[in-house]
């Protein structure tokens, strides 16, 4: 199953990576990202702002971004982000590696836990091998396994991206056809509500991108100090 990770559309036959980057002293310097160029750090922040803004600003439980392993020191970026953004309950998790790219999930821990605690969500996920007793961490582990097992995105990934459950189910039942609206995802339920959500997501993207264009970094834009 292919989902619309951002505002760009995706063909249902495309691959998931076609979407769219002393010992104590050494460790401390590495955590600060001193081995990475300013350009790399800025570009990494721009990617997050462009593709994951609604999650970074707290109105969406999770967002995906695919990044080049050669362009970014992803291990260090993830470590720094998770250390600094923990106060906002934001986290980056590498879901899957494929050749020269890595698929990252940026998520709000509180919102993700709430989403995965929903009984209807648990019921649908159980169909794909997720236990109702899973912790949020175990759900994400299972999602990573599912990604490794499929050429394209597994059907249930929309749940982790905060798509309405009726739209996730509608996509499966209609095999991606007969939708009412196509935006950040294919809509089968409340089209008017989805339109409002798409507008809000775009506002988030523009807000963060404008902040970065003014010269601040992604952490300053999110008021993480």
List keywords for this structure.
single chain; disordered N terminus; alpha+beta; three-stranded antiparallel sheet; 225 residues; two-stranded antiparallel ribbon
Describe this structure in words.
- Strand 4 (181-182) and strand 5 (186-187) form a beta hairpin.
- The protein starts with 22 loop residues before the first helix and ends with a helix.
- The chain is 49% helix and 12% strand.
- The strands form two sheets. The protein has a three-stranded antiparallel sheet with strand order 1-3-2, with helices on both faces.
- It has 225 residues and is α+β, with helices and mostly antiparallel strands.
| Uncertain residue segments | 1-15, 18-32
Instruction: Characterize the largest beta sheet: strand count, sense, and whether it forms a barrel.
Output: 3 strands, antiparallel
Element order, helices and strands?
A: HHEHEEHHHHHEEHH
Which range does the strand content fall in? Answer: 5-15%
Structure class: alpha+beta
Helicity, in percent?
A: 40-55%
Order of strands across the main sheet: 1-3-2
State the separation between the terminal residues, measured CA to CA. Answer: 39 Å
Morphology call: globular
Rg to the nearest angstrom? 18 Å
Summed up, the helix count is 10
Mean pLDDT: 88
Can you lay out the helices and strands and say which pair or pack?
Blueprint: H1 23-31, H2 38-56, E1 62-68, H3 74-84, E2 90-98, E3 101-108, H4 109-116, H5 119-126, H6 136-149, H7 157-160, H8 165-174, E4 181-182, E5 186-187, H9 191-213, H10 218-221
Antiparallel strand pairs: 1-3, 2-3, 4-5
Helix pairs in contact: 2-9
């Amino acid at each position: 199953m292919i989902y619309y990770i951002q505002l760009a559309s995706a063909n249902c036959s495309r691959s998931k990576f076609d979407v769219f980057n002393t010992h104590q002293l050494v460790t401390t310097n590495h955590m600060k990202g001193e081995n990475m160029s300013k350009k790399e750090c800025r570009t990494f922040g721009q990617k997050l702002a462009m593709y994951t803004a609604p999650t970074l600003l707290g109105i969406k439980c999770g967002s995906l971004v695919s990044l080049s392993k050669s362009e970014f020191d992803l291990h260090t970026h993830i470590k720094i982000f998770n250390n600094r953004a923990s106060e906002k309950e934001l986290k980056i998790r590498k879901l899957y590696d494929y050749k020269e790219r890595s698929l990252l999930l940026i998520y709000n821990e509180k919102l993700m836990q709430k989403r995965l605690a929903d009984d209807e969500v648990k019921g649908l996920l159980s169909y794909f091998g997720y236990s109702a007793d899973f912790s949020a961490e175990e759900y994400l582990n299972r999602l990573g396994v599912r990604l490794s097992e499929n050429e394209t995105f597994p059907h249930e990934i929309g749940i982790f991206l905060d798509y309405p459950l009726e739209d996730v189910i509608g996509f499966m039942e209609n095999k991606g056809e007969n939708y009412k609206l196509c935006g950040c995802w294919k809509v089968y339920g409340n089209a008017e509500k989805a339109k409002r959500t798409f507008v809000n997501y775009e506002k988030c993207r523009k807000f963060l991108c404008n902040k970065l264009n003014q010269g601040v970094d992604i952490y300053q834009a999110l008021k993480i100090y």
